[in-house]
Design goal:
By secondary structure, the chain is mostly helical. It has a domain of 26 residues. Helix content is 87%, strand content 0%. It has two helices and no strands. The longest helix has 30 residues. The termini are far apart. The model has no long low-confidence stretch (mean pLDDT 81).
Length: 46
Amino acid sequence: MEQYWWIIIVVVLIVVGLLKIVIMKKYNQRRNSNNRSKDSEDDKMY
């Protein structure tokens, strides 16, 4: 089982990273309804 501990850590880090990306996208969508002009510039950067 010692071989699998780093795999578990990597999987957890990937899941956390994906969750942060999803949360940021949802947060940006909420901001888009409030600020259209500023977020349109942010979309070009991505």
